[in-house]
Structure formats: C-alpha cells, structure tokens
Amino acid sequence: MRADAERNRARILDTAIAAFAAEGLGVSVHEIARRAGVGTGTVSRHFPTKDALFEAIVADRVGRIVDRVQALAESPDQREAFVEFLTILTEEGAANVGIAQAFAGAGYDMDAAATAGGYDFDAAMAAALCRAQEAHVVRADADVADIKALMVSCMSRGSADQATRARMIDIVARGLRPPESATQ
C-alpha cells in the first residue's frame, strides 16, 4: 500500500474510533469521511461497508480485551481476577458507546467481528467464568449470556462516572457469588 493510502487508512480508523466511541453505531460513513478530511470513496476503498470499518475497530478493541482477560488466568486470586474481568468489560463499554452497543447486540455481530480479527470473545468470557466457578467464587448456574446481560446493564448505567461503575461492578460481583458466600 502506498504511503499516502496508509496515512488515509490510519486517519479514517482514528476518526472512526473517536466517532463510534462518542456517538455509537449511528454515525454515518459520510460523517466519518468528512471528519477525516477524505471523500467517501476513499473510505470505501479501504472499508467497503460501514460494517467492515466497524469490524476493523472491534477486532482491535476485542483483541485488547481478550488479551487482558487471558492474562487474568494466571492470577492466584480468581475472585479478584473475575472482578477485574467485569471491570475491564464495563470500562471498555463506558469509554466506547459503539463497543457497548455492539456488545449489547444492537445491530452488530461483535462475536463475528472478533472471530474475523482472530479472537474468540465468547470463549475468553467462558474461560474466565469457568475459572471463577471452579474456584467457587462465582455461582455455578451463571453462564456467558448472564454475564453479557449484566455487563450491558453496567455499561449503560455505569457510563456516568467511575464511582458509579465501581458500585455497579460490586453489586454484580456480590450477586454472582455462590449462595453460601453471597453475604461475604
């Protein structure tokens, strides 16, 4: 790829990341092109569809999330690791409206985008949940769909500020404890 084409692609991605993060999935390709200082044809040459553009962003963000979640597998304290996992997901969603919408399934298949980027987001979530359940710090009847639903709620409720997000994570983490340790 030519140097100017690479610069345009990078500028488009940077602009799209900021636009999707601030405004969500509703931002148009035309608006992204305008903000990037390129024509819509230039955007289309690099990303034939809006989904392709968002997929490139999701693959990058999900890759970072998965890498961070996988690093928690080595933690000797799986309760702490699971709370950190919940925090990572909530913070990412709070920082990026588009990712939060995709995570919630609002018109975009985040799992497909992650897979296209070489990441299995659901498998990373399932592994984190399984480790926590095997360590008896998360109730055995919780599944990945439960965790996703709880995180979507935390993302939407907790987007206001850090203190709210921390409180929401604490509420969720306490509620996910096995029944015999739920009051601890």
TrEMBL record:
Bilayer-spanning residue ranges: none
Record's keyword annotation contains Transcription regulation: yes
Pfam families cross-referenced by the UniProt entry: TetR_C_43, TetR_N
Keyword DNA-binding listed: yes
Domain of life: Bacteria
SUPFAM superfamilies to which the protein is assigned, alphabetical: Homeodomain-like, Tetracyclin repressor-like, C-terminal domain
Protein's recorded name: TetR/AcrR family transcriptional regulator
Lineage: Bacteria, Bacillati, Actinomycetota, Actinomycetes, Catenulisporales
